[in-house]
Specification:
The protein has 90 residues and is mostly helical. It has one domain. It has 5 helices and no strands. The longest helix is centred in the C-terminal third of the chain and has 26 residues. The radius of gyration is 14 Å and the shape is globular.
C-alpha cells in the first residue's frame, strides 16, 4: 500500500495532497498557517509532500541526504510544469 501511494503521489501529487489532508493528520501541527500548504499545493506539490514527510520522520536540522531529496522533488515539480509548456510549443 505505501508503494501504491508513492506512485500516486508522483503521478498525481495534488490528488495525493487532498487525500492526505482529508483522511490523515499528515499535515497537522507542522505548518503554523494555511499559506505555505496552499502555495505548495499550487506551485510545488511534490516538494510539499517530500518536505512534510521529511519533517515528520526526521525532526531537527536538514541533513545533506534530505536536501538531496528536496532538490530532486523540486526538479521533478519544475519538470512537470515546464514539460507541459514544452509540449504545447511543438
Amino acid at each position: 500500500m505505501p508503494c501504491l501511494f508513492a506512485l500516486l503521489a508522483v503521478a498525481f501529487p495534488r490528488v495525493a495532497i487532498v487525500l492526505l489532508w482529508f483522511f490523515t493528520n499528515f499535515f497537522a501541527g507542522l505548518y503554523h498557517g494555511i499559506i505555505i500548504p496552499v502555495l505548495g499545493f499550487i506551485f510545488l506539490p511534490l516538494t510539499l509532500i517530500a518536505y512534510t514527510y521529511i519533517r515528520r520522520m526526521y525532526p531537527g536540522p536538514l541533513t545533506a541526504g534530505e536536501l538531496v531529496v528536496l532538490f530532486i522533488a523540486v526538479i521533478i515539480d519544475l519538470g512537470l510544469v515546464s514539460g507541459g509548456a514544452w509540449g504545447r510549443g511543438r
